[in-house]
Task: structure prediction
Amino acid sequence: MSETRPVMNLRDLSIPLRVAATCLLLVIVGGYAASLHFMKHHISQKDGDPELSWVDLVGTYHGVDKPAPMLTALDDSRHGVWLKDAPADDLQILRDWLSKGSAVGGGTDPVQQGWDALPPGASEEALTPADVIDERCVRCHGAAATDADAHKEVALERWPTLKNFVYSKKLDPISTDILAQSTHAHALSIPVFTLIACGMLLATCWPRWFRHGAAMLAFLGLLLDFGGMWLARASEFGCYVLVAGGALYGLALGSAIAASLVAMWLGRSASAP
Ligand code: HEC
Result:
């Protein structure tokens, strides 16, 4: 028989010990679920929108510095042609307004307030950003746009749709100190309960490839997860590594725990023929 039999088999433990092992595994599941919930809650606030998104993740570990889409549009070559008749001063009004803040989300903020208002001290004849948009952009970006190059999907006439194009995003990654603090707490504790869960899986009747494979993937996932968090400071690629590592780890840990529980109560005993 090529199959190695574990030295100890959970199935052969006394009922009290199996109850103890089951409770231990369930506590690990609970702790892991709570930490996922905490992470999700903590990270998803990052960009101001409560939903968890890729921007939250990149913002947390790498940082995001993305100018408002309207600023990008003002600088792109196609708009350069379309806006060649617009006085530079008018476009500067938009640039000054958009650079008012890298505020994120709605609410009362300098960008929203400045949209339809003159800056303090401006003359009566001066244009507000809303005036400039009406004059220079709405022929392509208004509900009634008729220009051959019109693009009504980008609706700039009214605030509810305009607001999607006027905010720059600048998110600083968590500090090295905080990341070091989190790494020291987690990198020294997670492997311990992972070892316990994998050790239990090793003491079951499941095929060797599965027991050994799950243990390998769990620890590989952990290494990628922690490594990715640090790599992400230098490159956004690290965010992919950390997500892939985290997913691999969760999958391997979940399989190890589920398989251990099944084998412990329903599996084959080592003394069975
Ligand atoms: C002649 C038509 C035309 C005019 C005038 C025009 N645009 Fe556009 N705009 C377009 C088209 C077409 C697109 C989509 C394709 C592209 O981005 O090149 C677009 C895209 C955009 C986008 C979306 C970019 C993105 O990242 O999704 C913004 C923001 C924008 N324009 C702002 C403006 C502003 C501000 C003005 C006025 C100062 C303006 N546009 C004037 C035709 C126009």
Remarks:
- The pocket of heme C is lined by residues 69-70, 72-73, 78-79, 82-83, 136-137, 139-141, 147, 149, 151, 154, 156, 165 (CB under 6 Å).
